[in-house]
Task: structure prediction
Amino acid sequence: MLKDRGFQIGLAVFVLVAGPLVYLLLPKSSGYPSIGGGSYDLSNFVYTLALLAFTGLWTLVTLLLGMSRNALLAKRAAAWAAVGAVTFVVSLIAFGRHLN
Result:
């Protein structure tokens, strides 16, 4: 599967979108600029919501692609859906507290 160029491109797209969102959710110093201003910070909420929305939509779309009659596309899509689902669950466990 890793020798498949199409699979690698799809995986790279996933990493290029999800990677920065995960990076933004990692703990940072208090001097970091925030979204929301004032005495509250919405950045963790916004980035967590964006990450969960992206990984959830990625998983749903790739599951739909997996129903293709093309065997190679179905195989790629199943692997992409697995990556998206695992990322969604791990993100929900790790960053779900930001949604409160």
